[in-house]
Amino acid sequence: MSLTTKDQLGLLYDLISLHAEECSGSTEECEQISRLITVIKNHPSFNQSALAAHTQAMDRYAKDGMSSTDIDMHIHTYQNDLEKWAMSIKDSTPQFVDEVE
């Protein structure tokens, strides 16, 4: 069973907000964030979403986190951004409609 775009956005929100709240995470979570962003960017509604303005920075955050030797410090460095990104994901979710659910 594949995830719908809303499921993917929910997972992305969970990961980003968890990093923001706990100021900790893992390189594997950063890998998952990067994969989710890649898939979501291919959705037809993506360019009209508020999320579009943040995905490049979010992907850079994820890729830098994947190679970080101190993941908690990396997350702490992006603390303010993580909170903004989480709100952007939450605000954008209703704009995405899957063709087949």
TrEMBL record:
InterPro entries, per this entry? YtzH
Origin superkingdom: Bacteria
Q: What is this protein called?
A: YtzH-like protein
* Organism, as annotated: Gracilibacillus halotolerans
Provide the organism lineage as a comma list: Bacteria, Bacillati, Bacillota, Bacilli, Bacillales
